[in-house]
Automatic annotation (TrEMBL), chain A:
Taxonomic lineage from the root: Bacteria, Pseudomonadati, Pseudomonadota, Alphaproteobacteria, Rhodobacterales
CDD domains with a match to the protein in the record: TM_PBP2
Protein topology in the membrane: Multi-pass membrane protein
Name of this chain's protein: L-glutamine ABC transporter membrane protein /L-glutamate ABC transporter membrane protein /L-aspartate ABC transporter membrane protein /L-asparagine ABC transporter membrane protein
TM annotation in the entry: 23-43, 96-119, 140-161, 188-210, 222-246, 266-288, 344-362, 374-395
Automatic annotation (TrEMBL), chain B:
Topology class, membrane: Multi-pass membrane protein
Keyword Transport: yes
Bilayer-crossing regions: 111-130, 186-205, 225-248, 260-284, 296-316, 353-378, 398-417
Matching SUPFAM superfamilies: MetI-like
Molecular function in Gene Ontology: transmembrane transporter activity
Gene Ontology CC annotation, any one: ATP-binding cassette (ABC) transporter complex
Full protein name: L-glutamine ABC transporter membrane protein /L-glutamate ABC transporter membrane protein /L-aspartate ABC transporter membrane protein /L-asparagine ABC transporter membrane protein
NCBIfam families according to UniProt: HEQRo_perm_3TM (TIGR01726)
Keywords recorded for this protein, A-Z: Cell membrane, Membrane, Transmembrane, Transmembrane helix, Transport
Classification via Pfam families: BPD_transp_1
Family listed: Belongs to the binding-protein-dependent transport system permease family. HisMQ subfamily.
ABC transmembrane type-1 domain: residues covered: 225-420
Length: 404, 432
């Protein structure tokens, strides 16, 4: 029987901090910590002495002071007597509005262009390739400026709509495209309109329930009920019926030319349109490439296998190709959404009052509180992007291939 | 047997029918059109719609471009020449050409300097971009930054020479020490370069730039497309080594270093470039010593470099993660230390995988250099929106100018992406 003796314990020596790989990482980290602390101290002391020399301090009290400037497109109540904090909130909401709008339309453009680029039709696929290359290779700032110029320099002034023989006319009698913005009809919610809205919500719930029921029926008994047409009918019929039963409670407020400008309806300002549309077509080109890559990533054997099982082409797409393609498409799609949110900060170039233009632009210039404003601005964007990446992690974990 | 067969049936063909060409509908352009444009009714509708869309785009723009006026001194004169017909006023491009390229403050007598620097850029970039060229050309690539600095900013030649001397000394020290230990060589090289720079900084006389061969041009006089090019090229080349360091740091097993890199990368990637440019224009000067004057160009370069190095770090991290685990283990089993394993085994492969991503970041960054117009630097977009459109002669010439800017960026960015695709095919070593 052999006895194992302990390996000779080495005394710790200082030289091991350099020559022994077990301890060397400690040395490096200590060095890094030292360097970090030194640079923070150096930058901090510079900051303090510079601020003292300029007679400034760091304080966020300016947020409570009256802003003193007007914002032409606001979602919440705001006037020039409101505080800087309120202006920042208006900016945050405007950023979110343009980001959400642009995400929706960019997805539509991108999916359309990506699918059409794979079309058998030579002309269509070349046209879509042209669209993608043109928009991906030209800075988004130039696109924003181009569309803003179309909005302000090409569209007619409201006065062009006046007179018996006007130079411009409203599209379908209710949409006015002017150089001050686009005017669209606004719904007016009369008494009893709540019932109509509730009916609509109820019919959506009914559609979801019906689809679940048909799937369950299919799996249990093998009977296949029609889904598409009943869903369409459920979507429209109850709401329209209720609309007439309640005596047309919802009416449209159509914009009309009064004096020098249009009154009534909803006004969507030129800067918002420019930013929204430019971000959509620019990011749409990137999304188109993601969609194309995703569909091409599904191997042709999958289509053929599904066809061999006897599935129809629509079901091949919805049951076999799309679930696999989406796994590839969605993660880059979400980071494109993040890009849209960050690129929406270019609003400042066309004067759309997003958070960068209010807090980082006018508030910063009026109060001179550069450090505070830029810090708050960064904090906002960081929060948004951390939220989106957290969501993305959850999603990626959810769709991860379950391997045995 | 054939005899008997011949008697049984009424007719037997004894010679081959001469081959006839396929019918017109199944060959040539008609077949191609039937297959590619009119394969099905829906397809035909799509084709007609596309042709209509092309017609809608081309019918106003084509005469507008072809009818363009190239020589006029103002918009009103241009309109007189056009006399009511539709036509572009490209005269603004010819008249303001130097302003679009160099900005409105760069001294006109010195335009040859940035032009020469631009031409030399191609020679300097060639050996990096195309491996087949003789390796000796890399010496010029190494000299180019100092030469370009001297050409564009002018002033005393001592400054770039001193910078070059510092780099050379640092490189020599590194080569001396790296044989024994990479860390010693690396840090020794940096320290040696710093020593040379501080010593030399004392030696350069105060008024050295006054009567220099090339008159000094301050950074605030730079502008136009030159500014976009300078920012793009400088920031991409600076951010590559920083990005590699950050990517390696993020993969590191040392928690502190890993966390520093993660926080830096995620912070930079989480905020838009505009906010970083705000930092450069209004906030960064608070962090420098009170007496120092770091000009706006340098501050913008610092912030854009930080921005792009975070993105490049993420691309390279993807490349590192894509390498099979066996490569790391093989390097370890050969007895290589960390620096050797990275330099000789891991990074060459990881960088090759990341080339398309790095080029994407570079193209994106080049496009993003237009954002500096927001912090009132007069790059190409800033020049167009500022001095040119605001001038009385050219107030209202939007499309020619914006179209020119768009075309210029398209040519550069499309060229870079085509190069990257060529490089990808060139570097593909897997057998397919």
């Amino acid at each position: 029987m052999t006895t194992l003796s302990d390996p000779p314990t080495q005394q710790f020596r200082l030289s091991m901090l350099v020559y022994d790989t077990r301890y060397r990482s400690l040395t490096f980290q200590a060095l890094a910590a030292l360097l970090l602390a030194l640079s923070i101290f150096y930058l901090g002391s510079n900051l303090i002495s510079n601020l003292r020399a300029a007679g400034l301090n760091i304080s966020f009290e300016f947020l409570g002071a009256p802003a003193g400037y007007d914002i032409n497109q606001t979602l919440v109540e705001y006037d020039s007597q409101s505080s800087h904090a309120r202006a920042a909130v208006v900016g945050v909401l405007n950023t979110l509005v343009v980001a959400v709008l642009a995400c929706v339309t960019a997805t539509i453009f991108g999916v359309l262009a990506g699918v059409l680029r794979l079309s058998n039709n030579w002309l269509v696929s070349k046209l879509m390739a042209f669209y993608v290359e043109i928009f991906r290779n030209i800075p988004v700032l130039i696109w924003i400026i181009i569309i803003f110029t179309i909005m302000t320099a090409v569209l007619p002034a409201p006065s062009a709509f006046r007179g018996a023989e006007p130079d411009a006319s409203m599209v379908m009698g209710s949409f006015a495209f002017t150089n001050r913005g686009i005017y669209t009809p606004a719904p007016v919610w009369g008494p009893g309109s709540m019932v109509v809205v509730l009916t609509f919500v109820a019919s959506i719930v009914a559609i979801i329930a019906y689809r679940k029921y048909t799937t369950k029926l299919l799996y249990d008994t093998g009977r296949l009920l029609p889904v598409f047409w009943p869903s369409i009918a459920l979507f429209f019929l109850p709401t329209i019926l209720m609309f007439f039963i309640m005596g047309k409670p919802v009416t449209l407020d159509v914009p009309e030319l009064k004096g020098f400008n249009f009154q009534g309806g909803i006004k969507v300002g030129g800067p918002l349109i420019a930013l929204w549309f430019a971000l959509s077509i620019y990011t749409g080109a990137f999304i188109a490439e993601n969609v194309r890559a995703g569909i091409q990533a599904v191997s042709k054997g999958q289509t053929e296998a599904a066809a061999a099982l006897g599935l129809r082409s629509g079901r091949i797409m919805s049951l076999v190709i799309l679930p696999q393609a989406l796994r590839v498409i969605i993660p880059p799609l979400i980071s494109q959404y993040l890009n849209i949110t960050k690129n929406s900060s270019l609003a400042i170039a066309v004067g759309y009052a997003d958070i960068t233009a209010t807090l980082g632009g006018i508030t910063l210039n009026q109060t001179g509180r550069a450090i505070e404003c830029v810090l708050l601005l960064m904090l906002f964007y960081l929060t948004i992007s951390l939220c989106i990446s957290a969501f993305m992690n959850v999603y990626n974990n959810a769709i991860k291939l379950k391997e045995r | 047997m054939s005899e008997q067969h011949a008697h049984d049936v009424a007719f037997v063909r004894t010679e081959f029918v001469p081959e006839s060409p396929p019918p017109g509908v199944a060959s040539g352009p008609v077949k191609w059109m039937r297959e590619n444009l009119f394969a099905s009714p829906a397809n035909s509708v799509l084709t007609l719609l596309s042709i209509y869309a092309i017609y809608l785009i081309l019918s106003p723009t084509l005469p507008w471009i072809l009818n363009g006026v190239w020589t006029a001194s103002s918009l009103s004169e241009c309109r007189e020449i056009l006399n009511g017909t539709s036509g572009a006023c490209f005269a603004v491009l010819t008249e303001r050409w130097p302003q679009l390229l160099y900005g409105f403050k760069y001294p006109a007598d010195e335009y040859w300097r940035p032009t020469l620097a631009f031409v030399l850029l191609f020679i300097a970039a060639a050996p990096v971009l195309f491996f087949d060229l003789p390796r000796k050309l890399l010496i010029f690539t190494g000299l180019y930054p100092f030469l370009a600095f001297w050409l564009i900013w002018g002033g005393t030649i001592l400054t770039p020479l001193l910078a070059l001397a510092g780099c050379v000394v640092g490189g020599l020290v590194y080569q001396r020490l790296v044989a024994s230990n990479f860390a010693a060589g690396f840090f020794g090289g940096i320290v040696a370069a710093l020593v040379v720079w501080t010593l030399g900084g004392v030696l350069i006389p105060e008024g050295a730039s006054d009567n220099a061969l090339l008159p000094a041009v301050p950074s605030r006089d730079l502008g136009g497309f030159m500014l976009n090019m300078m920012l793009g090229v400088t920031c991409v080349s600076l951010s590559l080594p920083i990005g590699i360091a950050l990517a390696l740091g993020r993969q590191s097993s040392m928690p502190l270093i890993k966390w520093i890199c993660v926080v830096f990368i995620e912070f930079i990637r989480g905020v838009p470039l505009i906010t970083l440019l705000f930092v450069a224009s209004v906030m960064l000067s608070y962090f420098f010593p009170p007496e120092s004057t770091v000009d706006l160009f340098l501050r913008v370069v610092i912030m854009i470099t930080m921005f792009s190095s975070a993105y490049i770090a993420e691309v390279i991290r993807g490349g590192l993660a894509a390498l099979p685990r066996g490569q790391y283990e093989a390097a370890d089993s050969l007895g290589l230390d960390y620096a050797q394993a990275m330099r000789l085994i891991i990074l060459p492969q990881a960088l090759k995988i990341s080339i398309p991503g790095i080029v994407n970041v570079a193209v994106g960054l080049f496009k993003d250099t237009t954002l500096v117009s927001v912090i009132s630097m007069f790059d190409l977009v800033g020049m167009i929106r500022g001095p040119i459109l605001a001038s009385t002669e050219w107030n209202g010439v939007y499309w020619e100018l914006l179209g020119f800017a768009a075309a210029l960026f398209f040519v550069v960015c499309y060229g870079i992406s085509q190069y990257s695709q060529w490089l990808e095919r060139r570097l593909a070593t897997d057998h397919r």
